[in-house]
Amino acid sequence: MTDSVRFACTGCGKCCTGHHVPLTLDEARRWADAAGQVVVLIEAFVVDGPGMPPEQREHVLRRSHAVPCGTGDARVSVTFAAFNPGRCHNLDDNDLCTIYEQRPLVCRIYPVEINPHIPLRPDSKDCPPEAWQQGPELIHGTQLVDAGLQALVQASRQADRDDIAAKVAVCQALGMTTSALKGNGFTAYLPDMGAFANALAQIPVDDGAQWTLHVEDEALVASLREQGLHTTNEPPVYYAFIGF
Questions:
Q1: What range defines the domain where residue 145 resides?
Q2: Pairing of strands 185-189, 38-45
Q3: What's the pLDDT score for residue 81?
Q4: Around Cβ 144, how many Cβ atoms within 10 Å?
Q5: Number of H helices, E strands in the chain
Q6: Which residues pair with 107 in a beta bridge?
Q7: pLDDT value at residue 141
């Protein structure tokens, strides 16, 4: 990380290719209405226990929701993301965004990071080197310079907090109740989009469904079970386990 980061988009389209874009609840509705596929990514942690990064305590608590798991409780964070294993379907033949004025918050914020604990590192982005050699100053020291971008970042973080209970309720209604442990991986679901759109149209009541943690590390399993939490390491059928 340097003391100053400059950035100017070159229009290469690489950030719109092969990236699943996190969506707010309203953005997920629009994506579903436009016949897009959503991927649901879930991670969990125990308050002041396994999966809780102490230095991120406030951030992860505010964007998570408590769920019953075995005889204990876990907290889950849910991300609804536009599923883009290849080119985003909103790119035209010239790599221009056809929904530019209505593009998701995360697209508007790029290349800035949403998580306050992740610094912007140009070498972790797909942008060509010249993108970082021109344009206005984006970061000075550790501070985001652009006031408009600051407001968008705060809006994105607030949406995470405001939407989490509804996202959990949608997951429960669709049977997506197995999570990975934060820092150990994600569980990923590709829901039927008709059922997903119906659940988004009328957010179901949180029915307190039981959750399960997919954990394959034996030491972690023992630690979680000591706290009464239900775990599984069976090969998944309806989701993918993406381990770190």
A1: 4-243
A2: antiparallel
A3: 98
A4: 17
A5: 6, 12
A6: none
A7: 80
Quote the DSSP letter at residue 77: E
Rounded CA gap, 23 and 37, in Å?
12
Rounded Cα–Cα distance for residues 49 and 228 (Å): 13
- In the chain, the number of structural domains is 1
Place of tokens 């075995």: 70
CA gap 61, 52 in Å, rounded: 9
At 2, list the tokens.
């340097």
Q: What is the mean pLDDT of each run of 10 residues along the chain (244 residues)?
A: 81 92 97 96 95 93 97 97 94 92 96 91 93 91 88 96 97 97 97 97 90 95 95 96 94
Residues 233/180, Cβ–Cβ less than 8 Å: no
Q: What is the pLDDT of residue 2?
A: 53
Predicted pLDDT at 1? 43
> In 24-136, where do the E strands start and end?
38-45, 65-69, 72-82
Tokens (6 digits) for 127:
């942008």
Cis peptide preceding 111, ω within 30 of 0: yes
pLDDT at residue number 14:
92
Strand 143-144 and strand 137-140: the pairing is antiparallel
Rounded to two decimals, the pTM is 0.94
